[in-house]
Amino acid sequence: MSWHLTENFLFQVKLNNMLFNTARINCLAWSPDSTLVATGSLDTCVIIYEVGKPASSRRTIKGAHIGGVYGLVFIDQERVVSSGEDGCVRVWNLISE
């Protein structure tokens, strides 16, 4: 998958092996420094990929929302917020404790 944004510049990132959601992807968010991309899906999972790294480095939040994930936004490099069909908004810490 390649993304091309034009507004006086060209930005291209290749994301390989983004095949881990098992249902339709409803939303996508980039981290502030564009090194992470998160996907939210009908399969109830949020998956965070590290751009340019193997898919094995991905982080999966299973069962993030009942009924599917419909919104994502990064607060910063360490936290992502998701919203879902269950009417909940959740903040996820991406740093292992």
Roughly how many Å is the radius of gyration?
13 Å
Shape: globular
Cα-to-Cα separation, first versus last residue: 32 Å
- Sheet having the most strands: 4 strands, antiparallel
From N to C, what is the helix and strand string? EEEEEEEEE
**How many beta-strand runs?**
9
Strand order, largest beta sheet: 3-4-5-6
Structural class designation: mainly beta
Helix coverage percent: under 10%
Number of helical regions: 0
Strand content: over 45%
Average pLDDT rating: 84
Low-confidence stretches: 1-6
Task: Supply the key terms.
97 residues; mainly beta; three-stranded antiparallel β-sheet; disordered N terminus
Overview of this protein structure:
With 97 residues, the protein is an all-beta fold. Helix content is 0%, strand content 51%. It is built from no helices and nine strands. A four-stranded antiparallel sheet has the order 3-4-5-6, with no helix packed on it. The termini are far apart.
Short description:
With 97 residues, the protein is mainly β.
What's the arrangement of secondary structure elements?
Layout: E1 2-6, E2 10-14, E3 25-30, E4 36-41, E5 46-50, E6 59-61, E7 69-76, E8 79-84, E9 89-93
Antiparallel strand pairs: 1-2, 3-4, 4-5, 5-6, 7-8, 8-9
